[in-house]
Amino acid sequence: MSYNLMLVENDIVLSRAIQEYLTNQGFNVYIANNGLEAFNLANQHNLNLIISDIMMPLVNGYELLEKLQKTKALSKIPVIFLTAKGMTKDRIKGYNMGCYGYLSKPFDPEELVSLIKNLIARDLLQHMSVEKCDMPKQSINNEIYLTPREASILDLVIDGMTNKEISTILETSTRNVEKYVSRLLQKTNMKNRTLLVKYAINNNLLDNTINRRANDGTRTRE
Q1: 120 φ, ψ to 5°?
Q2: Are residues 83 and 122 in the same domain?
Q3: Do 60 and 158 sit in the same domain of this protein?
Q4: Structural domain that includes position 41
Q5: pTM for this structure?
Q6: 152-180 tens-digit pLDDT
Q7: Residue 165 φ/ψ, nearest 5 degrees
Q8: Are residues 105 and 83 in contact, defined by beta-carbon separation less than 8 angstroms?
């Protein structure tokens, strides 16, 4: 799934470092140096998330959030603020305005990635609740069952893990993970990982596989 982020930060060195880290995690990252530039870019690109500093020239973080909320096409883009430690009043103001969350500088990039993945999971659940009626249901007579390895990988895909992260957790190669993900897409007849996750959850794919093995004592090969 392509996930588009925009980082709004007037510290060029910091913004480039964060961009490189997030790009390596599989995200598309745009950079803006101030709120005005960020607002213009938001009108040009389909963004899933904006990560913004608060104190910036021309248009600060709060003003940017306000401009986004007043623009119908941009009002649903979640915003995470970057702020200095101990700025409690700033945090309260941001939450009252409707920001998604805060990160205090300096922060661990892994914490930012965790926030992003939580947001992706939240959006995925919201989309599933809206689209559930449109998702295909598997026929009872044509149920899909997974091998233990496929089930393990699907579970991690549902958790929002990248192929690289899955390969590290399962101590296998990224190419091997890609092979299993492709197999899962073929078995479910889904076109991408997002649809695969929706399908698996809507059809209780993991639960059905576990229950089948428990009931008949079978163990399928990898």
Answers
A1: -60, -45
A2: yes
A3: no
A4: 4-129
A5: 0.57
A6: 898 888 877 788 889 888 988 988 999 99
A7: -65, -40
A8: yes
